[in-house]
Amino acid sequence: MPFLNRIQRWADERPHHTAVVVAGRRLSWAELRDSAADLVADTKSITPLCEANSTGFAVKLAAAVAGGRQCAVLDPAWPRQLRENIIRRVEGSALPAAVAPDDALADGPPESTFLIGLTSGTTSVPKAFTRSRRSWQQSFEASIEFFGLRQDDVTLAPGPLAASLNLYALAECLYAGSEFQTLQSFDVGDVHAAITHDRVTRLVLVPTMLRMLSERGLTGCVDASGVRTIISAGSKLDARTLEAARRWAPNATIFEYYGASELSFVSGAGLPAGHVPAVGGTGIGRPFPGVDVRILDDAGTPLPDGESGNICVRSALVSNGYLWGDDGQALRSFNGWFTVGDQGYLDAGELHILGRRADMILTSGKNVYPHEVELALAAVPGVAAAVAAGMPDDLRGQRVVAGVVPAHGGITAMQLRAGLEDILARDKRPLQYYVLTELPITDRGKVSRNLLLEWIDTRDPRVRNLGA
Predict the structure, then answer these.
(1) What's residue 345's pLDDT?
(2) Share above pLDDT 70 across residues of the chain, in percent, rounded to a whole number
(3) N or C: which end of the chain has fewer CB within 10 A?
(4) What region, left, alpha or beta, does residue 21 occupy, with left being phi > 0 and alpha being psi -120 to 50 degrees?
């Protein structure tokens, strides 16, 4: 079971209460149940669900996982040829479920697959993994406990429902009997309006969204005092985003967590209202309820506190593995301890995440992770954003370089060096700084360290050398 028995329960207990809101269109618990039930008989055993945010998305998702059915959620923004390729692969790779045509809106067996997840990989074709109904049920129970989700919360996740963060937030709210809201597409003004007029108490979003909402909310005097929970995922919050969010939503506990689509939740931490955050650190909290974390080397040997290696997880929340796309490194297992290759270390029970091994910079025999450098730089006054990379160096093998977008006015290499003195070890500090007019972003919206190096190499006008 993931959530269908819960929808039935809430529809019986609170039929006219709001379950889902998308761009102002509301769906009650009874309407959600009845609309989904009407679709079940005509829903195939495997459903590729590919559509933009709408109340219909929630209805079709519920019908698509009824009984023993399986659902694959595709991004409607993908090119048509890619979508068609994925649909063929899904229908050819998944094991068809034995589903009677008149099945009711009811959950299938707990151990059966209900979701085919898609995650980007090293190629243009996303990897596909599967999840059991039991794994999501246990994930819901862990996240509801950890984040303190209540039935009287109103959750707004303003991103696309095709993204795993927002899809999970929708399903979690259906399980908890709590109102879920989203938009047709992300718009700062629309999010601010929802917070002002729709009693939003809980935000689920990525750091870039939180930063825009907080900074523009402060400028526009948008009252976010009613928000009591902010959940950020995707990357660790930098100091400027955290400070702006704290000022804009003064009564919120701000959560950040580490997880992966294949692993589910791993660790997290909440910063209660009024608490001052530590700046520039790599800590990402303690393990989630029911999750064990170890740091193992490539042979599967446990490493002591403070020594970095593979972040490995043992929990009932882990996915079943891949339908396709597994190159042997994407999801590895060491006697039941699973890793997606992220590197980190434990310190007195707190997990510190350093990043992917592929991003590691080897300089003068030392391992430096750009993620750690970027977090430290983002804590320096006058820095709006930062990106670090390893540049080839005849003497050192690689040298650490960094590009920064100033918060306002200019900034000097001396200011950057001084700002890092107390928060980053000397052998991890950049040897060369560049001022950027903008972050190097790929066409998929991700910060690219390789693009930074390309800009430096070609003397792109968006880069200015500050020297050492």
Answers:
(1) 94
(2) 95
(3) C
(4) beta
Q: Name, in order, each residue with C-beta under 8 angstroms of 110's C-beta and a sequence gap of 6 or more.
A: 1, 132, 133, 134, 137
User: Exposure pattern of 201-224 as b/e (b: 16+ CB <10 Å)?
Assistant: bbbbbbbbbbbbbbbbbeeeebeb
Alpha helix ranges (H) inside 155-238: 164-176, 188-197, 207-219
Can you give the residue ranges of every domain in the chain?
A: 4-353, 360-467
pLDDT of residue 279: 67
Q: What angle do CA 368, 372, 374 make, to 5 degrees?
A: 110
Stretch 158-185: mean pLDDT: 95
Express each pLDDT in 330-350 by its tens digit: 789 999 999 998 999 999 999
Q: Which fold has domain 4-353?
A: Rossmann fold (3.40.50)
| H-type alpha helices, 177-312 | 188-197, 207-219, 239-248
Using CA atoms of 87, 91, 97, 101 in order, give the dihedral in degrees to the nearest 10: 70
Burial 313-335 (b: 16+ CB within 10 A, else e): bbbebbbeebbebbeeebbbebe
Reply yes or no on whether the pLDDT at 425 is more than 90: no
What gap in Å lies between CA 307 and CA 48, rounded to an integer? 43
Residue 100 has pLDDT above 70, yes or no: no
- Between CA 20 and CA 404 the distance in angstroms is 41
> What's the confidence (pLDDT) of residue 121?
44
Give the per-residue pLDDT at 169: 97
Residues 6+ apart with CB under 8 A from 132: 110, 111, 112, 113, 114, 320
Angle at 206 between CA 204 and CA 207, to 5 degrees: 120
Tell me the pTM.
0.85
Alpha carbon 411 to chain centroid, angstroms: 31
Burial state string for 91-127 with b = 16 or more CB within 10 A and e = fewer than 16: eeebeebebeeebebebbeeebbbbbbbbebeeeebb
Kindly state the percentage of the chain with pLDDT values over 90: 70
pLDDT at 123 over 60: no
SS3 401: strand
